[in-house]
Amino acid sequence: MNSRLNSETIAGLLFVLIGAAFLIGSYGLSFGTWRKIGPGGFPAMVSVALIGMGLFVAIKSLRTNGGEPLSFQFGNIAVIVASIVVFGLTVRGAGLLPAVLACSLVSALASKPFRPLIMIAYGLFMGAACSLVFVKGLGMPVAIIGPWFGV
Q: Which residues of 80-104 are buried (b: 16+ CB within 10 A; e: fewer)?
């Protein structure tokens, strides 16, 4: 058994922590029934799945020598946080599709090598998928293309 913490162990424990936080947050909401799930039911189910996946990853990493030793690359963490900020700042004005595209391009700066054409295609695909699911499917009040583009 490997007693050294590695990146997979930390990732698994982070999944458990995030899942537990959202599970605790869902307790104040109604769970509803299986036929009509309330606003707390789906987050609770996703939280339990995330906790289970986190436990699986953490236990698996401790049983094997998988994962690289723990090291933080603060530049990459800053780029990922910046991509979330870019999404938050652009989603209302630019719309969901351009915000997802911008978010994917900024987050791609954390990967090496940076492939802008592939990330543009990925961002457009993910933006279109998010638009279909959230705006068209779930009826969220978010513009696909926002007022910054005159739409």
A: eeebeebbeebbeebbbbbbbbbbb
pLDDT digits (tens, 9 = 90+) for 53-74: 999 998 888 777 655 666 667 7
DSSP string, the chain: ---S-BHHHHHHHHHHHHHHHHHHHHTTS--B-SSSB-TTHHHHHHHHHHHHHHHHHHHHHHHS--SPBP---HHHHHHHHHHHHHHHHHHHHH-HHHHHHHHHHHHHTTSSS--HHHHHHHHHHHHHHHIIIIIIIS--S--SS-GGGT-
The pLDDT of residue 24:
92
CA 66 to chain centre: 23
Neighbours of 50 (CB within 10 A): 20
What does the alpha-carbon distance between residue 98 and residue 105 come to, in Å, rounded to a whole number?
10
Q: 4 pLDDT band (50/70/90 cuts)?
A: low
